[in-house]
Amino acid sequence: MLKTIAGFDRIGEENAFAVLARATALASQGRDIINLGIGQPDFRTPDHIVEAAIKALRDGHHGYTPATGILPLREAVAADVEKRTGAAVSPDNVMIVPGGKVTMFAAILMFGEPGTEILYPDPGFPIYRSMIEFTGARPVPVPIREENGFAFSAEETLSLVTPKTRLLILNSPANPTGGVTPRAEIEKLVAGLAEHPHVAVLSDEIYGQMTYDGEAHVSLMGYESIRDRLILLDGWSKTYAMTGWRLGFSIWPDALMDKARKLAVNAWSCVNAPAQFAGLAALTGPQDAVHAMVAEFDRRRKVVVEGLNAIDGISCRTPKGAFYAFPNITRTGWKAKPLASALLEKAGVAVIGGPDFGILGEGYIRLSYANSTENILRALQRMEEFLRETP
Ligand code: PLP
Q: Where is the Aminotransferase class I/classII large domain (predicted)?
């Protein structure tokens, strides 16, 4: 019998991939499935970005690059982050990684071990908890509450810090709730963290450019007092519809940058070169496609929220960011996971049960509105019919 380390008995998964596989299997049997499950833009990567990758291949960029990424791209990331957050960033602190998830993996691996604690949002992206469990650290959920607009509460978050806390994971705009933490709460949190200098912060801002109703995204990068222990997670997947390219970036404080670089050298060497040239074109080229995508998500957001609230037993807050709706389904009488499963199997609508995002996810389902308005309307109609006809 092969014996692996205990972490592999604890590591979890992202159920959105299992739902995607099931939805694809049902569709291949001829079923008409509407997929509101997976969190990826339904748009193609803009043409000028694709062309930049093709040109890079034609120009012979076929080899390894520096482990932290090509310098022009790190410079472009530094300039972009500086423009969006006002923080001065050196390209020496930028690391290009194969997808946003890899920053999460690296940061949690860097801080988690038995005897330590890591704070993470619940409900939240499932990989946070999975990776924390893998390291043997104690996962400490930070409750993200509907009555608080699905924002972090600074007071509640700070109350969970102990001498054993090594890392605090923040995510705004958030998956799965679409919640955006307002400036006042972030300022309180940053001020409170001054009393806990032993706690590093991983700020997952992958949806940072997707906010609505004039809601500002407040980046943790804007706060000088925590820059020496802040890891920023961001990337191209959502903003530029590039989930399949596996391209992300992180900003690391001086004290951690070399450790992150060494992890890259050990694990993935570098990100594939043409994708890096594509990322450069994305940052330095026209941003019209990004604005158009966000405007389209905004239109669909209104359709999905209005449609959900019209269904008996469902209530849905208007999400302020990302491209997810997280309706409360408790009054339907269903538990979230059985409802998600029945909607897929019986009504042909793929959604994710809230418990896949944490204990506080019970009573909710997640719908991604990264699908056409026509499909969203068809899905809402099927959901309404299913709930009306199924006791
Ligand atoms: N962080 C959050 C909150 C996400 O929702 C996702 C993807 O769904 C990621 C990170 C990972 O992004 P990537 O596809 O770039 O690895």
A: 32-381
